[in-house]
Amino acid sequence: MRKVKWGVLGTAMICERDTIPGMLEAENCELYAIAGRSKEKAERFKETYGFQKVYTSYEELLEDGEIEAVYIPLPNTMHYEWTIKALQHKKHVLCEKPMAPTAAQAQEMIDTAKENGVFLMEAFAYQHSPYIAAVREEIEKGVIGDILYMESAFITSDYDLSNIRMRKETLGGATYDLGVYNTSLIQRMIGEEPVKVQAVASFSSQGIDKVTSVLMEYENGAKASFTCGMQLATNKDLRIDRFEIQGTKGSIKGDPFIFNGKGELGYVITDLCGNEIRKVVEVPQNYRLEVEQLGRCITEGEKPAVTAEFTLANARTIDRILEAIGY
């Protein structure tokens, strides 16, 4: 199996906690270079995780001809600029969600990837989970009939004001940080964009949406709703992850379910008579799955699991939610 040489643009917490451990597990990934604004921190990453090269300039990393693919975990405000630059350097890119603050910018990024003949994939690790695939397969097989209603929630602890999630100028807020999970999950299960979006939000004194609730309606009459928020005890890493899908023949409910969760995740199928079947899916580390998948796109021509069309549809929905809450 050919390994893809990866460069990582930044030393964000998600790298240490999630993505780099996944990259180390990925069979077709070679951790080649790390770039960080702090040379000391970048050197620590090199020593800890086995990167071969360290750069203190993002541009310098992009100019390294050995690097085939770049992972971008930078703050939301920097995704557009550095994804465009990486694509123009002919690098394949895995960019953290939300890939861009608007659908228009996401379209520009996708167009740039096409112009340069490289892959661009938004980093929704959980979308690669066999758990998500299993639930989607139940829907496709008609187990619960036609979807009538879907509900989801993703609520976490909030953070102190040093955290970029808590500041508007760094594109913080619940919708950008958490709501994109809800919209993308609903989109995966329902399979289309809503025709109507309504939303309300509670804002912090810093101007971010701390809690947002959304109602979406679809052309066939189905409805979906979700709440996202950073409202639980500060800096305690608490969270609520939930979904339930009601159909004409029954329902599917996550039990337990956690976005980006690994290990044994379950769901319960209930028919209209109240009979229940519980199924369990063994889920590998999700970040490993997304890195391996983009690697196969590069070496084997596989289609990205999170397509450009999927990203754009989700981004358009986020645009409409933010417009509805005045963000």
Write up this protein.
The protein is an alpha/beta fold and 327 residues long. Helices cover 35% and strands 30% of the residues. It has 9 helices and 14 strands. The strands form 2 sheets. The protein has an 8-stranded mixed beta sheet with strand order 8-9-10-7-11-12-13-14, with helices on one face. Strands 3-2-1-4-5-6 form a 6-stranded parallel beta sheet, with helices on both faces. α1 crosses α8, α4 packs parallel to α5 and α5 runs antiparallel to α9. The longest helix is centred in the last third of the chain and has 18 residues.
List the helices and strands and how they pair.
Elements: E1 4-9, H1 13-25, E2 29-35, H2 39-49, E3 53-55, H3 58-62, E4 69-72, H4 79-88, E5 92-96, H5 103-116, E6 120-123, H6 130-140, E7 147-157, H7 174-190, E8 196-203, E9 209-217, E10 223-232, E11 239-247, E12 250-254, E13 263-271, E14 276-283, H8 286-300, H9 308-325
Parallel strand pairs: 1-2, 1-4, 2-3, 4-5, 5-6, 7-10
Antiparallel strand pairs: 7-11, 8-9, 9-10, 11-12, 12-13, 13-14
Question: What is the β-strand count?
Answer: 14
Count of discrete alpha- or pi-helical segments spanning 4 or more residues: 9
Strand order of the largest sheet: 8-9-10-7-11-12-13-14
Oligomer: single chain
Q: What is the 3D form?
A: globular
Structural class: alpha/beta
Helix content: 25-40%
Euclidean distance between termini CA atoms: 46 Å
Give the overall average pLDDT. 97
**Low-pLDDT stretches:** none
> Main sheet, how many strands, which sense, barrel?
8 strands, mixed
